[in-house]
Design brief:
Elements (H helix, E strand, L loop, with lengths): L15 E5 L3 H12 L3 E6 L4 H8 L4 E4 L12 E4 L4 H14 L3 E3 L12 E5 L2 E5 L6 H14 L4 H18 L3 H13 L2 H6 L8 H11 L10
Length: about 220
Amino acid sequence: MLSVYLPIMLDCRGRRCVVIGGGAVAERKVAGLLEAEAAVVVISPSLTEPLAELAAQGLLDYQQRRYAPGDAGGAYLLYAASDDIAVNEAAAAEAKHLGIPVNVASHAEAGSFITPGVIRRGRLTVAVSTSGAGPAAAKHIKETLEEVLGAELEPYLDWVHAMRMEIKRTVPSPEMRGRLLRKLASLDTLTQMRQETFTEWTPAAIASWIAENSRGNLGLETE
């Protein structure tokens, strides 16, 4: 039976996120959490060298021991990533009892969420999940998408964001803002960035574009 998951983006900044286990799987979980600026707690009798280095740098809170009941308390989410299935199941059961989202590395069905493959291009985040078809298939699809989603998307989205903020700051009418944002999306800026022909807009050029495209009858335009 196909498991259908709800895609969701979580803001983990400063949140206590617990990882049970200190091996290679835990490494991957910790890397994603640190990228999301979470407050990471790792509970394990031992750590891989990369995790030990992160602990030495103070980038995570390492508790050198086995999982114990109560470790899930106060967590925003929990990863059960030890090499002991019984430990993973116990941690998952506690997390579920407390209403804490839990991912179980040894057998996903024991948890309440899965972690997809992630592609990042600055503001753009793309998640890839095959709902259990297999990590090799997910990896292949992710690598294919990485070739399509080029590095130019990062400066492009930064530019779009800056333009959007300026439009919101200077244009009081919601209808007009909607019109300008749709006009902005129709520009060939991304193509220019791919071809390296794009010239950064000066504040004067931005103001001129907003003024020029704010003229005229709004008609039936809506945001």
